[in-house]
Structure formats: structure tokens, C-alpha cells
Specification:
Layout (H helix, E strand, L loop, with lengths): L23 H4 L7 E7 L27 H16 L5 E8 L7 H11 L3 E11 L6 H9 L4 E7 L3 H6 L6 H14 L3 E8 L6 H12 L5 E6 L7 H8 L7 H17 L3 E4 L2 E3 L6 H7 L3 E5 L4 E4 L2 E5 L3 H9 L5 E6 L2 H13 L5 E2 L9 H6 L5 H5 L2 E2 L3 H5 L1 H8 L2
Parallel strand pairs: 1-2, 1-9, 2-3, 3-4, 4-5, 5-6
Antiparallel strand pairs: 6-8, 7-8, 10-11, 11-12, 13-14
Helix pairs in contact: 2-3, 2-11, 3-4, 4-6, 7-9
Length: 404
């Protein structure tokens, strides 16, 4: 069958079939790998200067309404059922954005009702939240809808740092939101932080960590600021208004994060993620284990059995395709064995479980990496490549060395 070209020529990848069909070999992977759903909510009240995610303020929606999101997501999940057959057991759902908490709990209840028969008994359902967009009532509603994990975008506790990032929330709103989430029943609460922001000092970063770790959370993520092309922050750095992040400073901030995490009973399980009492983001672990997931929503990415595809970005265009009964995919690629190997090594290396030595075509560099203190020699003796603290700082170097 010949499919009509319906995507801009500048998009990379193959043309995606209008019916979203997957190969038999890709479908065969579904019963043997964990499966998750990612639901993208593209709405934001304002766009942060550092963010390059697929988000839209109210003036950019061109006729698409927030109220239409749940119906269109339902259509994409119906498409998933047609492509896959019956949905496999769903271990995790991650609702990301954008700002998912701009939508009412009823929208998510509607989506869950459409697929609840595929939920595993211990399903993890995470929602990302801006602390200034929630109330006790809305948090209670999300929890009653079945959402059992919440991740608040904190970024920093220092007003001057938040200002550079164009974050609009009051730092006090974070503690209030976390306390309310715990009060309504959430037991799995995470905070996202960013380090290396221009103007941030070591004391600023330490203060942010101390405030975060004083709250009733059992997980946090800490990411080094990356200046993404096309963002406001990129233009500010390019014009000299703002200094670019410094790698050495960021490395020191990471060491501060590790020290404070250990002092408060948190342990790393992925280079940028720490949990307490065994808490982990199981959805992200599907990504890191090269598992399968269907990404629904504007611009969402999916992966099933070595086939990766991505949706058209604008909500109105995405929804129009679905209303016509077509896949909203903008393009896709079939990963080669070399690509699959590279991604498996790259992602496994970032985790506490590490990489099985048997996965490597050339294990010769391992002894040198252990001698240099970048991988754990005891774990290596047990057949696994696990980064040391110094190795986490130089994870890219370790990857390049192993993939030569």
C-alpha cells in the first residue's frame, strides 16, 4: 500500500502509515516486555525560558481547547487498541507536560475509564504538577481518580534562580503543595530540581536541596541545566545577557546533591534520580530498560519492539488526524541492531543495576575504566558494569570508551 505524504519534509524519519500499523516482530515484543503509557498534556499558562518541551499557551492553540484533550486522547487510545489488538497489561502511566494540573481530575477519570481493564493490580500512575496550580480539592480529585504518584516541578527554592528560569511560583508554594498532597493520601511524592542555573551559587543549591529534603517526599530528580536551541535562555546566552552553565560548577553541584541525598536517607538508582525506602519511578525504568510504551498526545513519542514514532506537535493538527480516523504520527524509524545496542548500553549505564558485561561486543576497556575509578571493580567481578560516583560525573566518557 502506498501512503500519502502528510508530514513536513523537514521532519526526520520515515513516513508513518496512516493506520499506525506495526510489524509482526514489533508486536511480538509486547507480551515479553513491560508496557507503559505516556499521556502528554501540552498546556501551560506561561512558557519557561529554559523549556523546549512541546507546550502551548492559550493564545497558541489555534482553536483547540483544553476541554477537547480527554476526548482526543481517547481516540488515540482507541487507535492503539486497533494497532495492538487488546492493550497489553499496563504497568505504568505517566502524565507529563506542559502542565497536566491545568486539567481537572474528571478529564483523567474519563481517560482511565477507557483503559482500566488493562491496568495491572499495582499500576503506577504519575502526574507532573506545578505547585501553584493545585489545591487540596484538586489534589484529592487526582488521587481519587487513581493517580497514586505526583511529581512537583520545584527547580529551586531561591527566588532569584527561579526568576532566571522564568518560573512563576512562589518557593513557599512547593512546601504547601507537598504537604497537601501527603494530606490527601499521596505516599509517592517526588520533586524535580535543576542545578547550574546562571547566578545560582553553591549555597543557593544547598538551600534548595535542604528545603526539598525536609518535606515528606520519597523521591527527587536533579538535572543539570541544558541550554536548548530555540529557547529564550538560549537567546540570552547567545547575546551575552546570561552566562552559559559551567561544567565544573555543575559537577560540583552534583556532588552536593549526592552528599545531601545520602545524609537524608536517599540513594541514587539512576544518574539523575534518588529514592528513599526503595522508591523509584517505575515508568522511567521502562525507558531505561528499553521497554515498550505508547505515547499519546501532541508531540508524544512511542516505542514498541524497535519501532519508534512521534506525533505531530500542534494540538489542533494532532486532534484533526484522530478525528479523521488516522494516526497522528509525524514520522517513525525502525531502529537498527547497532542503534538498539547503543541505546541499551547508554541507558543501562545510567542505572544502579548497570550493564551486563555479556552485552558488550568489546569488554577490553573495562579493566582500564575500573583502574581509573569510573566503574565499580566489585560489580565488574560479578559481571556488571556499574558507575562509581566519579563515573557518574563522566558517564558520557565511559559510554564513548565502551562503544569505540
Amino acid at each position: 500500500m502506498v501512503f500519502t505524504q502528510r508530514v513536513p519534509k523537514e521532519l526526520a524519519g520515515e513516513v508513518a502509515p496512516l493506520n499506525g500499523a506495526l510489524s509482526e516482530s514489533a508486536l511480538a515484543s509486547l507480551p515479553v516486555a513491560d508496557f507503559g503509557l505516556y499521556l502528554h498534556v501540552p498546556f501551560c499558562n506561561v512558557r519557561c525560558g529554559y523549556c523546549d518541551f512541546n507546550t502551548y499557551t492559550s493564545t497558541e492553540l489555534r482553536g483547540f481547547r483544553r476541554e477537547d484533550w480527554a476526548n482526543s486522547i481517547g481516540l488515540e487510545l482507541d487507535l492503539a487498541k486497533r494497532v495492538i489488538g487488546d492493550l497489553p497489561d499496563i504497568q505504568t502511566i505517566f502524565i507529563g507536560g506542559g502542565t497536566p494540573t491545568l486539567l481537572p481530575p474528571g478529564d483523567f477519570e474519563k481517560v482511565f475509564d477507557n483503559i482500566e481493564s488493562a491496568f495491572t493490580s499495582d499500576i503506577e500512575i504519575t502526574i507532573e504538577a506545578n505547585p501553584d496550580t493545585v489545591t487540596k480539592e484538586s489534589l484529592s480529585g487526582y488521587y481519587k481518580a487513581g493517580i497514586n504518584r505526583i511529581s512537583f516541578g520545584m527547580q529551586s527554592a531561591v527566588p532569584s534562580v527561579l526568576k532566571v528560569l522564568d518560573r512563576t511560583h512562589d518557593p513557599k508554594a512547593v512546601s504547601q503543595a507537598v504537604e497537601l498532597a501527603a494530606e490527601v493520601g499521596f505516599k509517592n511524592i517526588s520533586l524535580d530540581l535543576i542545578y547550574g542555573t546562571p547566578t545560582e551559587t553553591d549555597n543557593d543549591w544547598t538551600e534548595s536541596l535542604l528545603q526539598a529534603l525536609s518535606l515528606p517526599i520519597n523521591h527527587f530528580s536533579a538535572y543539570s541545566l541544558i541550554v536548548e536551541p530555540g529557547t529564550k535562555l538560549h537567546q540570552q546566552v547567545k547575546s551575552g545577557q546570561v552566562a552559559p552553565p559551567d561544567d565544573d560548577i555543575s559537577a560540583n553541584r552534583y556532588l552536593i546533591a549526592e552528599s545531601q541525598a545520602l545524609a537524608h536517607g536517599f540513594n541514587w538508582y539512576e544518574v539523575s534520580n534518588w529514592g528513599k525506602g526503595g522508591a523509584r519511578c517505575r515508568h522511567n525504568e521502562i525507558y531505561w530498560q528499553s521497554g515498550n510504551w505508547w505515547g499519546a498526545g501532541p508531540g508524544a513519542h512511542s516505542h514498541v519492539g524497535g519501532i519508534r514514532w512521534w506525533n505531530k506537535k500542534h494540538p489542533a493538527v494532532w486532534a484533526q488526524d484522530l478525528a479523521s480516523g488516522d494516526s497522528p504520527a509525524a514520522g517513525r524509524e525502525v531502529l537498527t541492531p547497532d542503534q538498539l545496542m547503543f541505546e541499551a548500553v547508554m541507558l543501562s549505564l545510567r542505572t544502579i543495576g548497570g550493564l551486563a558485561v555479556s552485552r558488550l561486543e568489546n569488554p577490553n576497556p573495562l579493566l582500564g575504566l575500573a583502574k581509573d575509578g569510573l566503574i565499580d571493580p566489585k560489580k565488574l567481578d560479578q559481571g556488571h558494569v556499574v558507575l562509581t560516583l566519579e563515573g557518574r560525573l563522566l558517564a558520557d566518557l565511559v559510554l564513548r570508551t565502551l562503544m569505540k
